[in-house]
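Example record

The entry below shows one chain as it appears in the dataset: sequence first, then structure tokens.
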Amino acid sequence: MCAERIRESVIAGSWYPDNPGALRNEIAGYLKRARPHPGRENLIGLVAPHAGYMYSGEVAAHAYRQLEGSRFERVLIVAPSHRTRFPSSTIYHLGGFRTPLGVVPLDVDLVQAFLEHPQLRGYYPQAEDQEHSLEIQLPFLQVVLGEFKLVPIIMGNQTYEHCTELAELIEKLCRNKNVLLIASSDLSHYHSYREAKQLDGIVTARVAAFDCQGLFRDLNDGACEACGAGPMVAVMLAAGKLGANVSRVLHYANSGDVTGERSGVVGYMAAAFYRE
């Protein structure tokens, strides 16, 4: 892997600290305040938010605390594209991802296997330009897991049809490979605190019920919001195909709980999918 092919951080020093010690200490503090839940030994997938750590780090920690003591060698992250649209999903295949905690290497074999399927119709380099939703998950994983290999997928098409296609491909390529699935998603944006809790309550209820179709229908109809709707639905579907039959919402909060500003907030959820 050539150094010039490493994907450099675009948010270190703004969305999270660029000093390794400060970053590790901040994440450790979040994790210490989160609590583990039963069933961690049968974990298949997670949902974690992708805002700056100041706003969503406490919520994200509830997802990543479930990984303590786990032995995942591979992590597949499905994240949304915020700045560009393309007809399917794209997978970065040129090299690892650098954070202040080091370089996360790609799972070259699994990445290549995904590239050979038409559900990922080519590589869209513009999807990586300034995109934060996938990178923001990596320092938490580096602290909790230590060494692991990454499969980084960004969705440009968030239709239910493509969610289903991607979920089927994940199942096909990841079965029996000890791969952790992660959906990167925030919830509602810039509503009042009260409105946000009502909108986000619809999402959390559907996730808790493991109701993928109902969740997508509500999102599609505008009954609720999530900027990672496609990744969340795709990972829920894939987790179910890989044996998960229990869904648990681990924590919910919004930016108003952190800043005290409640006129326009962003919602965050941590969730996990287990095999029971």
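Notes for this example: The longest helix spans residues 193-208. The chain has one domain: 26-274.
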